[in-house]
TrEMBL record:
Domain PI31 proteasome regulator N-terminal: 15-110
Name of the molecule in the record: Proteasome inhibitor
Entry keyword set: Proteasome
GO molecular function list: endopeptidase inhibitor activity; proteasome binding
Superkingdom of origin: Eukaryota
UniProt entry tagged with the keyword Disulfide bond: no
Species the sequence originates in: Acorus gramineus (Dwarf sweet flag)
Similarity-based family: Belongs to the proteasome inhibitor PI31 family.
Region of interest: Disordered: 139-166
Keyword Chaperone in annotation: no
């Protein structure tokens, strides 16, 4: 199974262009499949081309709908997975279905994608408990040479300057 580093490597190698926050999440889902050894066989209008393997061109030509078909040869059998994504406001509905192996049970996932999604160390705006003043570093105690962040970690190598300290 792919880890976050292999998924990020696929994203960096692809150099995709995004038009919305939903595009970013959908491309992360796509990268997960590629990192797990699946081959993209169709996306966008290429769903009907019949080619064995296609490029990623046109994957986000529709503003709120995305579709992918993946194939993977595994232990003598071919797995085919159809993935459909639909943007509904600030939610992204992801439906995946493995086709042709008798296990045709769909997998559904709903991901919250707030508008302008980005990393925010203070949390989402307007949600109580994430106010900027709530996460204030305690002041340095008089006469203490310990950094406030390390005050409660007396045994760690970072505190003592031991072998793990660089």
């Amino acid at each position: 199974m792919a880890n976050e580093n292999s998924v990020m490597a696929v994203i960096r190698a692809s150099r995709p262009s995004f038009r919305s926050s939903h595009d970013k999440v959908v491309f992360a889902v796509h990268s997960f499949f590629l990192a797990n050894g699946y081959s993209l066989t169709a996306t966008g209008r290429a769903l009907f081309s019949g080619d064995e393997e296609v490029g990623i061109d046109g994957w986000n030509e529709s503003e709120d709908r995305y579709g992918f078909v993946y194939k993977k040869a595994d232990e003598g059998s071919k797995k085919t997975v159809v993935v459909k994504c639909l943007a509904l406001g600030d939610k992204l509905a992801v439906d995946a279905l493995r086709v042709g192996d008798g296990n045709d049970e769909p997998v559904n996932l709903q991901i919250g994608v707030p508008p302008g999604a980005r990393f925010d160390p203070y949390g989402p705006p307007g949600v109580s408990g994430f106010e900027p003043n709530r996460f204030v570093r305690p002041p340095r105690r008089p006469g203490s040479d310990t950094h406030p962040d390390l005050h409660f970690f007396h045994d760690g190598s970072d505190f003592s300057g031991g072998p793990g300290f660089i």
